[in-house]
Amino acid sequence: MSSQKRATRSAGLLLFRRLARGADGGACFEVLIGHMGGPFWAGRESAAWSIPKGEYGPDEEPAAAARREFGEEFGRPVPDGEWVALGEARQSGGKTVTVWAMEADLDAATAVPGTFTMEWPRGSGVLREFPEVDRFAWCTPLEAAGRLVAGQRVFLDRLRDHVRDGRVTPAQDGP
Fold first, then answer.
1. What residues pair up with 102 in beta bridges, in sequence order?
2. Residue 172's closest CA among 63, 31, 21?
3. How many angstroms separate the CA atoms of 161 and 29, rounded?
4. pLDDT < 70: residue spans in the chain
């Protein structure tokens, strides 16, 4: 292993579903986002939600990580569909996140999120288990922008750019 610190990388999948056309005639859609689990995020709404995503190492492809992380966080496999590349964004903490979008309509109430274990309260020596994501919700891009952590909001803008006249223009075939 190199003495240099490796850059942290994360990949995710942003599901979206189309709604009826808006009053201005433009296509309307919602995105599926998850409220981060654990005691730090409890009781917080603003900037406490995330695109289903997670870290991956140098031996894993980003698309494979996005598929794996969606399955772990939502508790169901990724539905069939065409993947739309939304690119990468560097987060304020230095992590680079790669995101794809896919049109699909899952029932958010059927999620069975994976869990993680941490010492809580800190310093107590007590290990507790928490859900990775404690709930999912479908939100308009405007609602999602107020809920998502700041560094992920750029993906909403990029998805909006792909949604035209009630159809999606794929950036690439699904991985």
1. 15, 83
2. 63
3. 12
4. 1-6, 21-27, 164-175
Q: Are strands 53-56 and 9-19 parallel, antiparallel or unpaired?
A: antiparallel
CB within 8 A of 19, min separation 6: which ones? 28, 29, 30
Residue with tokens 């999948």: 13
Q: How many C-beta neighbours within 10 Å does residue 145 have? A: 15
Q: Which two tokens stand for residue 67?
A: 């598929």
pTM above 0.85, yes or no: yes
Beta bridge partners of 133: 36
User: Alpha-carbon distance 13 to 7, whole Å?
Assistant: 20
- The single-letter code of the amino acid at 72 is E
